[in-house]
Structure formats: C-alpha cells, structure tokens
Amino acid sequence: MENHEMSSRQMHRFLPTLRLATRVVLAGIFVIAGAAKAYDPAGFAIEIQRYQLVPWLVGAIVATYLPWLEMIAGAMLFVGRLKRGALLILTLLLVIFTCALASAMIRGLGIDCGCFGKTFQATGTLLPFLRNIFLLACAAVLWSERSEGV
C-alpha cells in the first residue's frame, strides 16, 4: 500500500515536468513548421492546392497567413502567454490538418503533406497523419490540466 502511495506522489510531481516538455515540443513543432512555410508561401500554396480541397485563391491566402498564425500561436504556447488561446488554435489546426491528410489518403492522392514546406520532402500522408495523432494526444495532455494554467 505504501509503495502505491509513493508512486502516486512521484507521478503527481512528474506531471508538471511532462506537461512542460509536451508544451515545448508542441510549440516548437508549430514554430518550426510555420517558419519553413513562411519562407516560401508560393511553394506552400502549391502544396495546399495538391489536396484539391479549396480554390487556388483560398489556398494562396491560407499559404500567406497560416504560417504566421502557426508561429505566433506556437510562440505564445512556448512562452506561456495566452496559453489556453494558443492551445485552442493549435488544437483546431491539428484537427483540420489531420482531416485534410485523411481526405488525401482516402482519395488516394499521392502527395507530400507540405507540413514543413520544402524542409522535408517525400513524407507522404501516412506518417504525417500518425504524427498528427500523436500531437493531438500531446494537446490532450495539456488540455487535461486543471484551470490553474496549461
């Protein structure tokens, strides 16, 4: 019985460290991905168009502004300012990105995800889909924290 209490206490002390590491990883991925796409918005617009989900003009607008949203929300989550709002934005983006990847897989589109612009090539859709599921789990860890903060 005493060992169980001890491990429960240790786990309680470990959770803040786990949440901090999760927050840093999630934030860092979005800052890096946003920066890679902001560097070449025209190339990112082409990647968006390959999904065949939105008209060219919408894709071009998204390619221009989405990377900045990713970088700002990632930075806010990283530094701890407006954490809940930043986490909400990043979670919604992950859901949208995961649905887009699933749509591409279902329709048999042989495309790269475009998640990191031209930084990583030939990633396909399955590995990014699985990565997004992992990142959604990371977001869930952060959402599970009580209202004292993320």
Name the descriptors.
150 residues, mainly alpha, 5 helices
Number of DSSP helical runs: 5
Give me the strand/helix succession.
Answer: HHHHH
Profile the largest sheet: none
Question: In total, how many domains does the architecture comprise?
Answer: 1
Q: End-to-end distance, in Å? A: 31 Å
Low-confidence stretches are none
> Average pLDDT, to the nearest integer?
88
Classify the beta-strand content into a percent band.
Answer: under 5%
Can you tell me about this structure?
The mean pLDDT is 88. The protein has helices at residues 2-39, 41-50, 56-79, 83-106, 126-143. Helices cover 76% and strands 0% of the residues. The protein has one domain. The protein is built from five helices and no strands. It has 150 residues and is an all-alpha fold.
How would you concisely characterize the structure shown here?
Helices cover about 75% and strands about 0% of the residues. With about 150 residues, the chain is mainly alpha-helical. The chain starts with a helix and ends in a 7-residue tail after the last helix.
